[in-house]
DNA sequence: TAAATATATCAATAATTCATGATATATGGA
DNA sequence: TCCATATATCATGAATTATTGATATATTTA
């Protein structure tokens, strides 16, 4: 993530439908949601949803996987982590070593093995 | 922060100059930077910088304070925290109580009293 | 009060983005 | 092979956004 790619990612989140989609996918975690489910949940027409999902995909904040006729979308926690780390770089008075693990915890990643990310799942 | 205000904040970060400004202010912490310093640091004309600062101000991600002829700008860590908390709401499999303190730590707030926010400053 | 400095506002044009209707592609089932 | 389902792509017009030159406002100093 750098100054050329980060604005694209923030732009992807700057539109209400796309932000709603993203938040639904964050909540859905590694279960994800189908394109049609997202459209139905948010009351968005098919082609509009498709176009907005394409913009989110290109931003690196979500990913997808086809399964038969359906395509399932997921939040991409690696991409989210990269974006937030870039945004908050050198926060806390220029001590990135301090903030980095906090960002990692914030964006706890259901795509990784559970044992790599216990903070996300332990009580 | 809600679905009507968050897109405005992400839109504010979706433009390279404004994202550079924001990151400089995050690094500057409670020292902040003058409008003119920001323009000089980034090579941006005066009125363009003023317009972009106004957009960031309206987003709630930065704040300012006039001091004589100059106006000093600061990252608004309360606003940042609100935005990221909204973005990542119910992350980690729907356990907001788990993620909330992580977001709080991520956006450690130099505006608050040090003793309220030790994680940001202790080694 | 007049000049200088720092920043904001205005008006206009150029560029970008958005939702939509129509259509195309991909897959599965009869 | 034909049809139905799920999703993507295309072209277009409307709306929004960005930058710029010019000018205005606020503050300090002479």
Oligomer: homodimer
| Number of domain units of chain A | 2
Annotated CATH architecture of the largest domain in chain A: Orthogonal Bundle
Helix and strand string of chain A, N-terminal first? HHEHHEEHHH
Please give the number of β-strands of chain A.
3
- State the end-to-end distance of chain A: 31 Å
Describe the global form of chain A.
elongated
Structural class of chain A: mainly alpha
Which spans of chain A have pLDDT < 50 for at least 5 consecutive residues? 113-123
Order of strands side by side in the largest beta sheet of chain A? 1-3-2
- DSSP helical segment count of chain A: 7
- The fourth-level CATH homologous superfamily of the largest domain in chain A is Winged helix-like DNA-binding domain superfamily/Winged helix DNA-binding domain
CATH fold annotation of the largest domain in chain A: Arc Repressor Mutant, subunit A
The major sheet of chain A is characterized as: 3 strands, antiparallel
CATH class term of the largest domain in chain A: Mainly Alpha
Rg over C-alpha atoms of chain A, rounded to the nearest angstrom: 15 Å
Query: In which range does the helix fraction of chain A lie?
Result: 55-70%
Brief characterization of the structure:
With 123 residues, chain A is mainly α.
Keyphrases for this structure?
homodimer, 123 residues, mainly alpha, Arc Repressor Mutant, subunit A, three-stranded antiparallel sheet, 7 helices, 55% helix, elongated, disordered C terminus, DNA-binding
